[in-house]
Amino acid sequence: MIWTYIKERRTWLLLLLAVQLLILFISYIDNTIPFMSMLYIVLLLSILCIVFVILRYTKETKFYANLENWDHTYDLAELKDADSPFEQLVLHAVTLQTERYKRENSHNFMLLEQEKDELLSWIHEVKTPLTAMQLMIDRLPDETLQRQLMYEWLRIHHLLDQQLHQKRIPFIQNDLYIEVSKLEPIIYQEIRALKSWCIQKGIGFDVSLQASEVLTDAKWLGFILRQLITNAVKYSASSDIIIESTRSDDDHVVLTIQDTGRGIDPKDLPRIYERGFTSTTYHQDGASTGMGLYLVKQVADSLFIRIDVTSVLGEGTTFTLTFPRKNEFVRITSM
After folding, report:
1. Average pLDDT value for the chain
2. Taking the model in full, what pTM does it have?
3. How far apart are CA 36 and CA 22, in angstroms?
4. How many CA atoms lie within 13 A of 37 on its CB side?
5. What span, in angstroms and rounded, lies between the C-alpha atoms of 153 and 257?
6. Can you tell me the distance from the alpha carbon of 27 to that of 19, in angstroms, rounded to the nearest whole number?
7. At what angle do helices 292-302 and 143-168 cross, to 10 degrees?
8. Is 243 strand, coil or helix?
9. What is the sign of the dihedral through the CA atoms of 241, 245, 248 and 252?
10. SS3 of 143, please?
11. What span, in angstroms and rounded, lies between the C-alpha atoms of 205 and 190?
12. Cα–Cα distance between 263 and 184 in angstroms, integer?
């Protein structure tokens, strides 16, 4: 701040310096004026000017230092030290601008809430004809056509489900209910939802649950598994998807989902949780939206689930979910 102050006041400081040098110059060329006496006077004036600048620096920069450190939370109480007319002018302008931003922010938030409610309402309305469509597909006599239509129905259902949860994630803390949840019904529910697709692709599941319970929100855990299992089915050929749960040495429940699909390129691994990122290897793949793993990461962080991934291109991918222990969850949520 001191260099900024000197830069701001440099013309005044240069004027003071020029006046002192002018006095010394006149006393030097005018023999009637004792030079040493004038030098002594200039020295005293210089000391006085330095003390004056130091005192004024503390007073004049207090308001601007607060402005510089302002955290922009629309709290104007931190900018109350406006003494000079120019500082009051700045404070007045900042106050008017802040009030304007508050009004605009409130209006935009109301529009955003309205848009979210309308979209959620639309999604729920669309689910009704989707359910009717599923019943109609089940009655089709042509099994080949039935499988094809069911596959497209699942894609639409999956995209709607993604959109629904994407709108809910910003408010996930209001929707969490943490309890001891059984893994088996959650996993099998998600597998059954993909049954027709798995049969069509010749994909089976090998489920082994040594640890049967976890501390989490069952509904949001189901969403995480839905995304991971759907990806495993989508990018795998005829093979088994292995789902295992174990308990680690430090008493964490660890759930792994392993497939033998196309895998992930090593250079893509650091970016798979980025919003909208698909793949650099299969960049023309129109089946991917780049949102699934992004949403999985958002939900996993809210549930304090550590998610890790290992993959070999062309051989398969393994996702590992590490659940918090009860005492860790209580400690984290109480912070």
Report:
1. 83
2. 0.66
3. 15
4. 6
5. 24
6. 12
7. 50
8. strand
9. positive
10. helix
11. 12
12. 26
How many C-beta atoms surround the C-beta of residue 230 within 10 A?
A: 20
Q: How far apart are CA 128 and CA 103, in angstroms?
A: 38
String of DSSP letters for 3-58: HHHHHHTHHHHHHHHHHHHHHHHHHHH-TTS-HHHHHHHHHHHHHHHHHHHHHHHH
Contacts of 231 (CB under 8 A, 6+ apart): 292, 293
The per-residue pLDDT for 5 is: 75
Residue 140 burial (C-beta neighbours within 10 Å; 0-12, 13-18, 19+): middle
What is the structure's pLDDT at 332?
47
The length of the chain in residues reads: 335
Report the C-alpha gap between 131 and 121 in whole angstroms.
16
Q: Tell me, what's the pLDDT at 333? A: 52
What are 274's two structure tokens?
């980025």
Residue 190's H or E segment, with its range, is: helix 183-193
Tokens of 253: 């429940």
Give the pair of three-digit tokens for residue 152. Answer: 């497209």
* 197, 198, 200, 203 alpha-carbon torsion, rounded to 10°: 160
Express each pLDDT in 182-234 by its tens digit.
999 999 999 988 888 888 888 999 999 998 899 899 999 999 999 999 989 98
Q: Which two tokens stand for residue 290?
A: 């780049």
Pair type for strands 240-247 and 204-209: parallel
Q: What pLDDT does residue 328 have?
A: 65
Among all chains, which residue has been given the structure tokens 């984290």?
Answer: 332
State the Rg of the chain over Cα: 34
Positions of the chain with pLDDT under 50: 332, 334-335
Nearest Cα neighbor of 299 from 226, 221, 228 is 221
| CA distances to 179, 327, 329 from 332, in Å | 15, 9, 5
Q: How far apart are the C-alpha atoms of 136 and 129, rounded to whole Å? A: 10
Burial of 89 (0-12, 13-18, 19+ CB in 10 A): exposed
